[in-house]
Amino acid sequence: MSYLGNPPWESGITPPELIDFIASHPPGRALDLGCGSGTNVITLAQHGWQAAGIDYIPRAIRAGRKKAHHADVDVNLRVDDIIKTENMGGPYDLVLDMGCYHGLPLSLRPAYRRNLIDILDKEGTYLLYALTTEDAEHIPGVSQADIDGFSQILELQFQQEGTDRERPSAWFRFKSRAWDKL
Q: d(Cα 52, Cα 95) in Å, to the nearest integer?
């Protein structure tokens, strides 16, 4: 993937689902996994959140830093691997993923899910937007097996089905289970 031109996932607009979450939750610490050029990290910071974002594409992070500077917000945007938790800090009150998880190879998904236990606060929220599929092995997307995997460590609070460029998609909101942190 590259950031030449305008990638379709970079709308520059924070989705209403995140705006609704921000409006109904007090500011805290937030991490955007696969943050791209930082649109949502900047929005979170503008609403009082201590916001960080990670992406593996240096050009996207450079663009995000420039956007944050122009927006006059203090955010932490960096190039890193979302599978490694040692550099992520935490715990976070909100971990956001808009379209990153569904692009991961199936072999990396269990590690990603386990990492949420390390970085999410014991009362934290994980907000996921992803393309959905019945066959994640052959069609990129989140399958029921992925949701079941998340549900082993987090409590599914909300799921809203939709479409994205004629592909099935969904928003998922998971909450930490306090007993996972004991």
A: 10
CA 173, 176, 178 angle in degrees (round to 5)? 155
Domain span holding position 34: 28-96+116-123
Q: Summarize pLDDT for 112-143 with one digit per residue, the tens.
A: 999 998 899 999 999 999 999 887 777 778 99
**Which DSSP helix (H) or strand (E) runs through 77?**
strand 76-79
Q: What is the CATH number of the domain that holds 83?
A: 3.40.50.150
DSSP letter (8 states) at residue 45: H
Our count of domains for the chain comes to 1
pLDDT digits (tens, 9 = 90+) for 145-180: 999 999 999 999 999 988 776 788 999 999 997 644
What is the average pLDDT score of the chain? 88
Is position 135 within any domain? no
